[in-house]
Write a structure and sequence with these properties.
The protein has 8 helices and 2 strands. 6% of the residues are buried. Helix 1 packs across helix 3 and helix 6 packs across helix 8. A two-stranded antiparallel ribbon has the order 1-2. About 6% of the residues have low confidence. The longest helix has 68 residues. By secondary structure, the chain is an all-alpha fold. Among the domains are: 65 residues, DnaJ domain (Helix Hairpins, Orthogonal Bundle), CATH 1.10.287.110; 87 residues. Pfam families: DJC28_CD, DnaJ.
């Protein structure tokens, strides 16, 4: 019963919420079990607490059930106002501002809009700096490429000019007067050559050959072939000094000593092959190292097979 709740708190039935609250506080000071008051009573305090909570619920329902006031977002206006409202802006008009950003109260929307503007400004600054750096980088690359191209052209013209000066100087000294075929048309002008050979190297070799000179890599190739053949002949000679397979212990020792003696020669030969591979103009002319153990084993087996054939 509502009247009993008011009576429990000791206030009139038409008391407002503030009066009820003040009466409740005074009663709590008197009857709360922890107040150390002589009137402290648990049952009485529970009754006061229950009456106060019920009245608070009553006030809450009355506040939300008012028919003469309506509103949203905590803003209210009186519907009974007879004044014309055509000139009054709708309450939600404020939520159409701030570029439609954010939610909540106008103050919250204002803060959210300010943060959004700051983030947008920072994004624009970052984009501007990135574009500026890209422009500077592109300009720098363009300048470097232009300088490199100009340097290459200058170097090319410088080399061409130097070669031309040397040719003219040699002609003035008469160094080309003793060339074979002087004053005659060039032979084999349209002679084909390997397309994988550098044209300059090809022409240099051609000039050397036409004038009785041999390119260095050809001479080195001949030396390598002779050196390789010499090592093989020495292996064959020493193989003839021992008997057929299987070799005895003394024969095996002799054969190993032969390979040890030839190891120095093989090292020199392989060094020549390395130098040859660096200067030869044709990739197909490259040579592999001489493998002493493999070649010795091949000769050892071959000579043994020849002996078997002779016995048969």
């Amino acid at each position: 019963d509502v009247s009993q709740w008011y009576e429990t708190l000791g206030v009139p039935c038409n008391s407002d919420q503030e009066t009820v609250r003040a009466a409740y506080i005074n009663l709590v000071k008197r009857f709360h079990p922890d107040s150390k008051s002589s009137e402290a009573d648990v049952n009485k305090f529970q009754e006061i607490e229950r009456a106060y909570r019920n009245l608070q619920d009553k006030f809450c329902r009355e506040r939300f059930n008012k028919n003469d006031c309506e509103g949203e977002y905590g803003l209210y206006y009186n519907e009974k106002n007879d004044e014309p409202i055509d000139h009054i802006a709708p309450q939600h008009r404020q939520y159409l501002s701030y570029a439609g950003i954010g939610s909540g109260t106008p103050y919250q929307r204002q803060k959210q809009h300010a943060k959004h503007k700051a983030a947008k400004a920072m994004e624009n600054v970052t984009d501007f700096r990135i574009n500026k750096m890209q422009d500077c980088s592109n300009k720098s690359l363009t300048v470097k490429e232009s300088r490199k191209k100009a340097k290459d052209i200058k170097t090319k013209f410088g080399v061409d000019r130097l070669v031309e000066d040397l040719i003219q100087e040699s002609m003035s000294k008469g160094e080309f007067d003793n060339l074979r075929g002087k004053g005659k048309p060039l032979k084999n002008l349209h002679r084909t050559h390997n397309p994988y050979v550098d044209f300059v190297t090809h022409k240099m070799n051609e000039v050397l050959i036409d004038n009785g000179f041999t390119p260095g890599w050809i001479t080195l190739q001949k030396e390598i072939a002779e050196h390789r053949e010499n090592i093989k002949n020495r292996l064959i000679t020493d193989r003839a000094k021992i008997g057929p397979l299987p070799l005895s212990q003394e024969e095996q020792l002799f054969w190993e000593e032969t390979k040890i003696r030839l190891a120095v020669e093989v090292k020199i030969l392989n060094s020549k092959i390395d130098h040859y591979n660096l200067v030869v103009p044709l990739l197909s002319k490259q040579q592999f190292h001489f493998n002493l153990n493999k070649e010795a084993e091949k000769i050892l087996q071959t000579e043994d097979s020849d002996d078997d054939c002779l016995e048969r």
